[in-house]
């Protein structure tokens, strides 16, 4: 498995992914022209010399080296809200108190806002069902944090992820059904498609700006506020193990939670280290310390970035070099003594203090992170 930047030749597969991912996965919409523009934008972003984050969008694909098939996607939006606001509801508690009457009541509200403009957003995490295998989901999720650790000048100090909320197999959202009944008479898929294509005027025109009292909502709508789709739970657990937390901001359409973490606080960013690559034969791996668990190995470039996961890595005692197989070096396109970055794949076990399931049982969610892309 090799992670690399998306290329123009991936358009057909990207379209199939956008189609098969279904309603609610707004990161990739089944529009061939829009996807072609997204690929062009990503390619230009990888090529730019950057001093501060702008409108760059980095889209990676996971490729099966044996067959050339695209197994999944993962992406990073360098800075949200550059061309239009990123809207959310803020889920909050308000206290009504009358001192004279001695009455006090706390109620929950949802207030429309654009709190997260200017932050980096991770998005487009999708692992195709037929390619679910050990470590694929973790590689797709964590490689982004390793890339951000390599190139912090390209990203904001805070990183967010918008998680897909609750909807049924037909794409019907209990939360949106209540909003539609009272405010916006539009199908859920139509609303998300409009925003995914870049049209947001109707949010200001039709979506409520005044606080919504959640106790006036239907039981079905209120029950899913801040909850994720069942298929999204593995992706959320991985982000929580990285240090991401929900601060009360939810999606306008399905009330899925947005989670956030400081870039310097993300576990994978903190655990990523740089060293020199050597190949078996130049050193004797048997005299070195073999990694006890799989490790992500990545190159240091941008437009030619490559990353993979291996359990065949021997690290020098001082951590200055890693010995790899010549075959893996060829897959990454690196030469002897080239700089590479390493990240233990299962580091979150120590950070979280929990016993996770076997890696094969924690696939990346096929519909995990939405992102209303341009």
TrEMBL record:
Transmembrane segments: none annotated. GO terms for biological process: L-arginine catabolic process. Keywords: Acyltransferase, Arginine metabolism, Transferase. It comes from the Bacteria. It comes from Marinobacter pelagius. InterPro entries: Acyl_CoA_acyltransferase, Arg_succinylTrfase_AstA/AruG. GO terms for molecular function: arginine N-succinyltransferase activity. Residues 350-374 are annotated as: Disordered. This is Arginine N-succinyltransferase.
């Amino acid at each position: 498995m090799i992670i690399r930047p998306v290329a123009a030749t991936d358009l057909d597969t990207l379209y199939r992914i956008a189609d098969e991912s279904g309603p609610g996965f707004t990161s990739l919409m089944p529009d061939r022209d829009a996807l072609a523009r997204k690929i062009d934008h990503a390619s230009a972003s990888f090529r730019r010399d950057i001093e501060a984050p702008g409108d760059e969008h980095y889209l990676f694909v996971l490729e099966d080296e044996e067959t050339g098939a695209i197994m999944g996607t993962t992406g990073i939006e360098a800075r949200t809200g550059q061309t239009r606001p990123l809207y959310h509801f803020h889920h909050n508690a308000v206290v009504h108190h009358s001192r004279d009457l001695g009455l006090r009541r706390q109620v929950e509200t949802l207030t429309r806002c654009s709190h997260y403009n200017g932050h980096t957003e991770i998005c487009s995490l999708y692992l195709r069902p037929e390619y679910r295998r050990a470590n694929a989901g973790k590689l797709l999720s964590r490689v982004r944090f390793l890339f951000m650790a390599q190139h912090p000048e390209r990203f904001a100090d805070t990183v967010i992820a918008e998680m897909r909320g609750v909807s049924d197999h037909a794409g019907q959202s209990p939360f949106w059904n209540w909003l539609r009944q009272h405010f916006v008479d539009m199908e859920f898929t139509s609303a998300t498609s409009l925003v995914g294509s870049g049209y947001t005027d109707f949010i200001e025109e039709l979506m409520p700006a005044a606080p919504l009292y959640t106790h006036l909502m239907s039981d079905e709508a209120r029950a899913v506020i801040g909850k994720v789709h069942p298929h999204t739970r593995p992706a959320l657990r991985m982000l929580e193990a990285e240090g991401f937390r929900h601060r009360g901001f939810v999606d306008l359409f399905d009330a899925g939670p947005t989670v956030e973490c400081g870039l310097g606080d993300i576990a994978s960013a903190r655990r990523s280290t740089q060293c020199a690559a050597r190949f078996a034969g130049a050193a004797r791996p048997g005299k070195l310390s073999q990694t006890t668990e799989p490790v992500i190995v990545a190159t240091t470039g941008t437009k030619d970035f490559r990353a993979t996961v291996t359990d065949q890595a021997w690290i020098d005692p001082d951590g200055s070099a890693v010995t790899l197989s010549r075959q893996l070096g060829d897959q990454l396109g690196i030469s002897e003594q080239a700089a590479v970055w390493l990240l233990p794949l299962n580091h979150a076990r120590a950070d979280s203090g929990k016993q996770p399931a076997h890696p094969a049982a924690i696939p990346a969610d096929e519909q995990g992170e939405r992102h209303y892309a341009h």
